[in-house]
Design brief:
heterodimer; A: 110 residues; mainly beta; five-stranded antiparallel beta sheet; 0% helix; globular; B: 114 residues; four-stranded antiparallel beta sheet; 49% strand
Chain lengths: 110, 114
Amino acid sequence: GIQVEQSPPDLILQEGANSTLRCNFSDSVNNLQWFHQNPWGQLINLFYIPSGTKQNGRLSATTVATERYSLLYISSSQTTDSGVYFCAVDISGNTGKLIFGQGTTLQVKP
Amino acid sequence: NAGVTQTPKFQVLKTGQSMTLQCAQDMNHNSMYWYRQDPGMGLRLIYYSASEGTTDKGEVPNGYNVSRLNKREFSLRLESAAPSQTSVYFCASTLAGGITDTQYFGPGTRLTVL
């Protein structure tokens, strides 16, 4: 089956720093989403981005489908950005069955 | 809108006991999902329901059963709990499961099997 690999596994930043998280996937996908899991366990969808670039405030994401990777950029990080970031892909195209990567754990220090 | 709700929030079972995890959504979504998350890992799909009246297996269905009770509710049952089923269980829903749909997650149920 498809493999979804995220890097780095762990990241520690000082508040105000920028970061880039990467998601590689081993096969063509129809749907790619980025999620943030906060320290209390709640999962929030950040982006639906099977291709191209999107921005939402300090966060932006780029997916290069032909090269099978996606990047999540966090600028001017804040302590509230701490948590685990997951990318998830759907290869079926019509079921929403997501395959998750193992996540990047981000800690932002004040 | 409550979004996706799950009950209970926490549960401790003994090996061999059974229980049902409840999930409900009030967003008029058609598709619903059950995932499990083990420590240090991403989520893995257990079962999903593309629409009312249909269910299908995901990556890790063994040891679980599901019921799509109606459009709002999707339950997950453990018939004979095992320690390997200790995990955090998340329910999710999406409008239609299509490629443009984002998924919305419930707060999770933390299950420990002794």
